[in-house]
């Protein structure tokens, strides 16, 4: 049987079949102290976990931002290279047409002069066609 004695002290009274009663002080707050300590440890662990999680999220956001910027830069470079490629293709076509026009002029000039075109010139004219 547990009973209250002076103040808040709890005492367990053991009554044997022979002899006097035995009074044993009982600390009913020990379990409560242990639970409080456990809650404090858990709260600390939870706080550390939340902090680590927040740091990981911030690192992930920074990495995502970095990759998005890198992707934007690469897309801009692709667009610039595609435009440069179109310019070079147009320039190539211009010079190709100019070359062919000049070949035809040279071929006609040889025909007008009355002489047979040179062997190298025939080869050049056949390549342009």
UniProtKB/TrEMBL annotation:
SUPFAM superfamilies: Leucine zipper domain. Residues 55-70 have a biased composition (Basic and acidic residues). Residues 32-95 form the BZIP domain. Residues 34-70 are annotated as: Disordered. GO terms for molecular function: DNA-binding transcription factor activity. It comes from the Eukaryota. This is BZIP domain-containing protein. It comes from Diplogelasinospora grovesii.
């Amino acid at each position: 049987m547990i009973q209250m004695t002076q103040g808040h002290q709890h005492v367990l009274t053991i009554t044997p079949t022979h002899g006097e009663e035995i009074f044993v002080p009982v600390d009913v707050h020990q379990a409560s102290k242990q639970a409080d300590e456990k809650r404090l440890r858990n709260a600390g662990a939870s706080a550390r976990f939340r902090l680590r999680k927040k740091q990981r999220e911030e690192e992930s956001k920074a990495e995502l931002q970095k990759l998005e910027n890198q992707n934007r830069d690469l897309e801009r470079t692709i667009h610039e290279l595609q435009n440069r490629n179109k310019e070079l293709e147009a320039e190539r076509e211009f010079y190709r047409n100019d070359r062919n026009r000049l070949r035809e002029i040279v071929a006609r000039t040889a025909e007008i002069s009355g002489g047979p075109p040179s062997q190298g010139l025939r080869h050049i004219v056949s390549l342009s066609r």
